[in-house]
Amino acid sequence: MQITLKLNGAPRTLDAAPGESARDLLRRTGIFSVRNGCDGQGSCGSCAILFNRKLVNSCLLLAPQLDGQEVYTVDSLARNRTLSAIQSAFIDAGIVQCGYCTPAMLLAAHELLDRVEQPTRDQVRDAMSGILCRCTGYEQIFAAVDLACRRRLDPNYKGEIAPEFRDDLRLVGKAQRKVDGPRLARGERAFVEDMVEPGHCHLKMLGSPHAHAYIRSIDTTAAEAMPGVVFVLTYKNCPDAPYNQAGQGFPEPSPYDRRLFGQKMRHVGDRVAAVVAETPEIAAAALATIKVEYDVLPPVLTIDEAAADGAPIVHNSEIAYVAGAPANLDNSGADPRDGKIIYQFPIHADPRRNIAARVDGGIGNIDQGFADADVIHDAVYESSQVQCTPAEPHVVYTRMDGDRLVIHASTQVPWHIRRIVAYILGISENKIRVIKERVGGGFGAKQDIVLEEVAAYCTWVTGRSILFRFDRREEFIASRTRHPMKIRIKLGAKRDGRLTAIFMDLKANTGPYGSHCLTVPMNACSKSLPLFLCDNVRFQVTTYYSNIPPTGAYQGYGAPQGSFALQLAAAELAAKLGMDHREFLELNRAREGAMLEILRCLGEGREGIPQRVSSCGLGPALEQGARRIEWGIRAESDDPDVRIGKGVAIVQQGSGLPGLDSANAAVMMLGDGTFMLLSGGADLGTGLDTVTTKMVAECLGTSMADIALIAADTDLTPFDTGCYASSGTYFSGGAALNAAAAMKVRILHVAAELLKEPESDLEVAFPSTVRGKHGSVTYKDIAAYTQTGTGCGQLTATGNFVSDKASIPYGAHFCQVAVNTRTGLVTVQKYYALQDCGTPINPELALGQIYGGVLKTIGHSLWEEMVLDAQGRCLNANLLDYKVPTIGDLPDDFRADLVFTNDPFGPYGSKSVSEIACNGAAPAIAAAIHDAVGIWLRRWPFTPEKILRALGTIAAPSATTAADELTAPTRAATPTHV
Amino acid sequence: MIKEYHAPPTLAEALALKQRLGDAAVFLAGGTEVNSAAFPSAPAHVISLQHLALTAIQATATDLIIGACCTIQQLVDSPAVPDIIKAAARHIFNRNIRNMATIGGQLGSNKSCSNLLPILVALDAAVDLADPAGTHAIPALEYIAGERKELITHVRIRTSASARRAAVERYARTANDISILTAAVSLARDGDAVISPIIAAGGVAKHVIRLAPIERALDGKPLPKRDALERLVASRVAPIADLRGSIEFKRHVAGVLVAKALLRAYRDGGR
Ligand SMILES: Cc1cc2nc3c(=O)[nH]c(=O)nc-3n(C[C@H](O)[C@H](O)[C@H](O)COP(=O)(O)OP(=O)(O)OC[C@H]3O[C@@H](n4cnc5c(N)ncnc54)[C@H](O)[C@@H]3O)c2cc1C
Ligand code: FES
Ligand code: FES
Asked: Is A415 in contact with A409 (CB distance < 8 Å)?
């Protein structure tokens, strides 16, 4: 049917299908700014439009409902590409991270400011209440709206956006407009889903209904015969190449324990068959015709079940080693249906006992340490499975370009994708180009290669362009989650509080495959243990296979779990000692200059590198945080049911992987003296592109506008291991800076010729000039000189960054919570995250990283948890039931603060900032809950029900939790009362 | 899969269409339920109520008459709507949803955890039902309990009812959560005595219900102490366990919520 509407001010007549959503219609019409975060459930707001001047979710409107109405999208805000006051304010305030939610936020702000001239905090909260943003932690929205109000009156209003650092530098340490901000704020084509061309095919995946089963038979003939079906792929016709999806550097520590498709199903949603078809409807219809018979096996869901004698074996596979095969390797019991496992080197796995990886180590003499202790604390801490929930689910678009395969990816690891796809397809890497588009939130989940290889293979075989996008349910059950862990901590201390021994026995659940099965649990140790200076430390790590949804990398990478266990144990020990928790931390904490010997045994599958702490802001962070939260002074509520408590935790992370990571960049001078920067760094919305651009501009004495960036395209830019392990600023930034420094050397060399002065007398000076003692020459003149037929050729330079130094970022997180003893509800009243990231390159974006990381993990601490039934089916695989924080869940007083240090090794003195922010919330909140009501909660999330049970308000913990009860057959059938 | 979209210009045509299409058609108001991907029965036909002019809020001498297609946000914004209904409407935290979802849709979707239905029940609201023969009013509770499907044109609240002491409460995990439990009460006071209380609760049964035995136990007497009230309520509700909580937990919280609502209404009128 035809409808007529006013779209962004212009009358339009469009063809609409009766059942089509308004969002789909708008996207078909070329409005890319309406996005899709929840597949039309209505819960994310990323598809918001102004419909008759009201903000509504366009996925909840039928296209015909637009008939005769007025619709505005963000596309209407920028006039001739000039940003509106609201757009520029939101970018400058640092609230545009990945940008997937940005168009919705901007429309909400627009609607609000049309209604209210000077909105209050509550009004801002209300206006943004329907928009889910996983990146930013929302807090900077308030400043953005305030800035927008001022800019509406005075377009040139600058305002103070963030604190400034490093007086000696021009750009570094000062807020500068995020380089990809304008594009994202204008809602232009930016993400993978925006890149598809007419005529592309759709890939849909049939997922296993069983958590653990063999495929007995599979019949795809009906699907293959369906008109519009292009290709059907199953374990029967896929390459027999074991690999892993972890997206790590080669040789990977993760086992090659899967194929594209296997005969064994290891989790609900595991790949059974892929259908490529002309339309999504045909693909879905074809999937429904595939007949599969399963031999169902009992599922293994928990660490205890996996470790039990006689437990069902998740990987009863044939095992092989590339290097270091153990002498007693025995494949006699292997089941061919389980496939193969190849280890690049030993990770001490024992798959027949469901052990995916093992490691142990330590320093000093642990027994002596405990013997010397006056007080010992020994307890087990558990974390449940939580999902990364990027606003944009996993998505890939693959196509052929001549005889080369092009992969448009939303990824953190373009080069690993190329390597792994080349390996699976059995082709050389130069046949493949991976282009990282804007990524709508990565958080680790997009380090793993969870759908790219399937689409790539299907395109390579069929020659067709293919879009493969997870829906939100698939994102929950088939992408990546935090490894659930069970961590025993035993601590010994002298009566004065000094630690004499730390023992950490860590068990992790890797689920169906071994993605990051060694490294995430190790990181839980390596990013928590070195926070305390103790001579006697031991750790042991065992990771188990099971049939839960897959786990993998997630911002923090094990450190949130390790930190929760160790920091909360420290709080408990301090309480036992009768010592102030903060004093205990101050006494035992890491300090500048300290040698961290423990890191020697915490390499990723090889010997690690012990580190001397090169810079450490822990002291000031603890001191300033304590002052701000009025540590030691009890706060009281007027409500007699409410008790208030305060808590603290100290945190650390790393800055990339020393000895493993490598980043590269190139700089080219153009004819007018401006530059192209080619960086391998994959910006996930974190601001990395702004970091690299800014460092190069700083070094070369130019403005950022004079640097044009191309990043993370395997054809155009040099190699980078990828954006994970907090490596972006340190490694990719370092490579860009090294390339700029090399360019500077070349520039000075040419300038010396032109000025006839020795190079040692020359320096680059802003703007784009070389100054000597006597004369000066501009880059423009240098470019002209070098690029003529008599010149030395275009100036180009490359830079590489590798390091054996791991500059460690530090921080202290303080919080104040109110616990309602009648309802069990916990409110985070105050949260102060004080972090030392060395020199903050982009302070406003660094703050955004902290707010985002903290709010995510407040979510994990209080609300988020994937609930599985006894068959391993996730019962809350959507954004209505799985509670991701929204703007209404912010602490009343939420502050991120940057504690300045100048690191000697990081580029411009910088260290990482984002992952570390995830490590404080759980232990600080748990400690604060104890301070409020005297209970130690040792398993996240700290739900009201757990609190009421611990307080004895409702019957003592029963053997069955709500989730267990759900497994009773009557329950699964019972609808929830919603 | 929706095959046809109807937007009839008059009530009579809407009713005639529904009569002709029967179960193959559903009425479409805000669409937050019908158009959501989570909607269980994908209807072949939708009949939009968009053009039926059911969006007015009108106060007469005796009644507040709310058009069924008024959005939740309209309730929040309208000066004619009593504060207690606004408070319940604001419990739907998501403004995008408030901008779309309608009061008629709240009744039509008839969710146990609706934030608006408990207060409608507690204020003894009536709904105007239209069928080809004409319109007639029935109590909102009857519509809810009977899982009725007739087209609602208006919701009526007696002015005298909204003058009663009333309070609303909700229990949710996060700001943007669908409530796990809800409660609304209205009552009058004669000295210390509670007079004809109405207690409505959501999340404790398939639909929003009145806790009649508790109403009877309280009627004509001074309000018991909080602990006693909580126990009384907890012992009389029968929620189911689901992924949002066990039975014991929900019982306890229902007690807390209802007691809190009663105490607020009793002490300070709930305002
Ligand atoms: C993301 C999300 C969050 C939500 N949060 C909340 C919340 O916090 N609190 C809450 O209470 N609810 C919440 N809801 C539920 C939602 O508000 C209700 O479903 C809504 O009130 C339905 O209204 P509607 O106008 O959108 O109904 P529609 O989707 O148009 O219709 C819903 C049902 O009612 C019927 N119907 C509609 N109008 C009439 C009428 N006039 N007469 C008879 N039948 C009619 C329809 O046929 C249909 O069966 C949420 C929903 C979503 C998607
Ligand atoms: S896609 Fe519309 S609300 Fe999520
Ligand atoms: S910036 Fe909001 S979801 Fe990424």
From this structure: no
